[in-house]
Amino acid sequence: MPKLIRRGAVVDDARVVVRNAIAVADVPAGPVLVPLSLWTSARDALLARGNVGVWLAPTDDPATLADDTARLPAIAVDFPAFTDGRGYSTARLLRERYGYTGELRAVGDIQRDQLAYLVQAGFDAFALAEGRDPQAALASLADFTDGYQHTGLRTPWFRRRAAAGAGA
Amino acid sequence: MYRYDSFDQRIVDERVAQFRDQTRRYLAGELSDDDFRPLRLQNGLYIQKHAPMLRVAIPYGQLSSRQLRTLAHIGRVYDRGYGHFTTRQNIQYNWPELARVPDILAELARVEMHAIQTSGNCIRNVTSDHYAGVAADEIADPRPYSELVRQWSTFHPEFAYLPRKFKIAITGATHDRAAILVHDIGLQIVRDARGELGFRVAVGGGLGRTPIVGHVIREFLPRAEILNYLDAILRVYNRFGRRDNKYKARIKILVKERKPAVFAADVEAEWAHLRSGPATVPAEEFARLEAFFAPPRYDTLASDDAGYRSALADNRAFANWAARNLHPHKVRGYAIVTLSLKKTGIPPGDVTSDQMDAIANLADRFSLGELRVSHEQNLVFTDVRQSELLALWKELKTLGLATPNIGLLTNIVCCPGGDFCSLANAKSIPIAEAIQRRFDDLDYLHDIGELDLNISGCMNACGHHHVGHIGVLGVDKNGSEWYQVTIGGTQGEHAAIGKVIGPSFAADDMPEVVARLIETYVHIRREDERFVDTVRRVGIDPFKERVYAEAH
Predict the structure, then answer these.
(1) A113 vs B contacts (CB less than 8 Å)
(2) What's the pTM value of the predicted model, to 2 decimals?
(3) ipTM score for this prediction
(4) What are the φ/ψ torsions at residue A118 (nearest 5 degrees)?
(5) Which of B388, B411, B415, B472 could, after both became Cys, cross-link B463 (CB 3.0–4.6 A)?
């Protein structure tokens, strides 16, 4: 069974990223993540099938899913290369603007050294790139204990500083 | 100046630990070159011609004497006894050993410094006016805002992997000494009709392959909205900036292709969602940051110190230095002093560790223990009493830091070039030196007057050649080094890109080319007209004719 890091632990996960489905018939059985194009063209059929999530490419507009966030069991964001940072904006928009609270999974070229940023941007599940050890990667989730900026997870540090009493 | 609290310190310490582990995994073969590259770049580490190069941030150019001593120590222990100040308020070390870089970062963290995001496709070290807080023409001190932006940009989780590097500059003065219009974002502090502080926001300026002067997309942004608005700009850029071609990936290309008005509308639409949100900066945070930069308790002094006046009258060398290397201070009886790192024969911006230690001692003695780094690669003492200028000048002279050439032709801005940098097409330091040697007559230099000469060894334009009154760009022609010359470039609030005068030149010709440009100027200038003003008035043709005339 493929491994996934979910909420800080390595778990087995059967949900498959279906990369090239153009019709519902192309979608294999079991839990899946389908391309946004298929979702927009066959939403009702996919909802009837059940247990369908959507994956977004870097150029996909997360606003397309604004009305679907409550009924999707998982949304994935694809990183064709870890240096392509568009997915970080996609994640924040899904969490902070479109109110998505379900599993948000980073897929593609995901490596341990990006996990700390991905978590802060709102991801809570990570399918590491082929050949990467998810167990070893867990350590990198804790690379940073906090950050200055506002994200879906926290208010900016300057709004918490006084209460936290961070001395010099 | 700003001091870290336990939170700031923890963030930097955690970064050191993270990079130590990444370096260990790289050296153990667990991280490939390709995977390690973006990680090391975001810690300022390049692999250069001879060795790695480490670029350390000096946020908005401010440095304490204690920090400078650490920079000296790092140069001595981990490098070859010197460092190089860059055009972006950073210091670079050219010879560190990769395995010891985590130790260098730990040394820096102990004095509240870092190399975070000094390279890579992320938000770089924020730069500002080197006279911040002491200039007479200031609307507000830009340093509290610069520090706010430093914190916001440090490990911003959404913007660590942008299409390309991203540079932000801030000025609080009416005269722009931070070159804000050639930055990805340039912020100028302004007041609105009600006297409220805010920013005029320019976007999409930059040098490099496609030099463009920034476009103002908002005339007044209330200061409380600054982080919301920066998030909006960066988000539009992160999502829609080109990633297919690194030469078209800077925000200036997005702004140009979308048209500035359309880009501005995109940003405003994004900002509409973020406006008044959690990242709105409360007045208490501004007050907290401002307190770090409160003016020191200045003494009440006469505006004209008698001893200083008589020293000027008696000592011509001192008077020359005072004429060129001092800038008016906002407080009576004090002066702003520039230490020239442009002595002929020394690569522009280079300082030895011994000099750094000596400068740190002088900063303690003469300027409240602090100094600044300018984007023209010089150092600045901001708070020197007029009565102590003569003593300071004597000390600086001994150290070779009193060359009276600030604003003059020999104050050359110059990148490391082909001697060090693996990106360079051509050498730049030897060209600077040859030009400095040709113009060794101080009286002639003063007669020529204000002149910015900038040299870049390739079109990445680290030497900012496009905005030099005379700009020199190293180019490669069939494997040999040539130099293209532009004139009429300008930095500051009237930023302009220089025009190419014609075919490029061999290295040996460069001093003569510059000499002919200057002769032309001297011949046709009007009274009180600077070189660049003459170029603006008459165009490039007279210069071109003279430079390319026979016997060249």
Answers:
(1) 18, 22, 31, 35, 39
(2) 0.95
(3) 0.97
(4) -60, -40
(5) B415
